[in-house]
Design brief:
It is found in: Cytoplasm. The protein is of the alpha/beta class. 36% of the residues lie in helices and 29% in strands. The mean pLDDT is 93.
Length: 241
């Protein structure tokens, strides 16, 4: 099965930015318009777009909602997250045409509630984001824009969500996010063992076509951020690969 290529736009204060290892103090801003960039990705041939409201991820709410609405109107299949704290927030995104809602912090803190959402709205409408950082205890799960550490491990939650019928699992190795150091293949092979029924979206570290090829057979999709924004990887080549 081919890997789904999903370009990403991270938004902060209405601007397109990237953080290094999830650190809000290590931001790189890009002199591009989010809507123009989304349109460019669409015209090259992308089917999906991954959008993160970084303000919402840290503080809750939807600080970049108007930009997100504009991106949805481009006609791309949008999966978006950051700021979803309750079902009203989930419905707000679904109502404007977001195809899949990405839930992170609340998926870690309230797995029973998110499992109810999956049953109610369907497994294809929700992406469970279990972004992780290696610790002495195992793969820990930071929350609130990766600024706080939750007392639960990836190996506990991933199988639980698989058992609840979740289909899409987005997992970022935070240490590699925005670092262009290559994807953590060990992590994704591990997920294939602990949650084999889930379609894993790999995120963090992808630099080039060789990195994409290395994920073949391990991940169902790959999120591409900095490598595309900085021209290190051509989206057309990635889609063809």
């Amino acid at each position: 099965m081919n890997i789904e290529i999903i370009p990403a736009l991270d938004l902060r204060g209405g601007r397109v930015v990237r953080l290094r290892q999830g650190d809000y103090a290590r931001e790189t801003g890009y002199a591009i318009d989010a809507l123009e960039q989304g349109r460019r990705y669409r015209d090259i041939g992308a089917r999906w777009l991954h959008v993160v409201d970084l303000d919402g991820a840290r503080d809750g709410g939807f600080e970049n909602f108007k930009v997100l609405e504009g991106l949805v109107r481009l006609g791309l299949e949008v999966q978006a997250g950051g700021g979803v704290r309750d079902e009203a927030g989930l419905r707000r995104l679904l109502d404007i045409g977001v195809r899949r809602v990405v839930v992170g912090s609340i998926a870690v803190r309230q797995p029973a509630l998110v499992s109810e959402w999956i049953a109610r709205h369907g497994a294809d409408r929700i992406v469970v984001a279990l972004d992780t950082r290696r610790s002495d205890a195992g793969w820990s799960l930071p929350v609130a824009g990766w600024t706080e550490t939750a007392g639960v491990l990836l190996d506990e939650l991933a199988p639980r969500y698989a058992g609840a019928g979740a289909r899409h699992l987005l997992c970022t190795d935070i240490a590699r996010d925005g670092m262009l150091s290559g994807p953590n293949l060990e992590l994704y092979r591990h997920l294939a063992q602990v949650a084999p029924s889930m379609q894993v979206q790999a995120s963090g570290g992808v630099r080039d076509l060789d990195d994409l090829r290395s994920l073949q057979g391990i991940a169902a999709a790959v999120i591409l951020g900095r490598s595309l924004l900085e021209g290190r990887l051509d989206l057309g080549d990635a889609l063809a690969c």
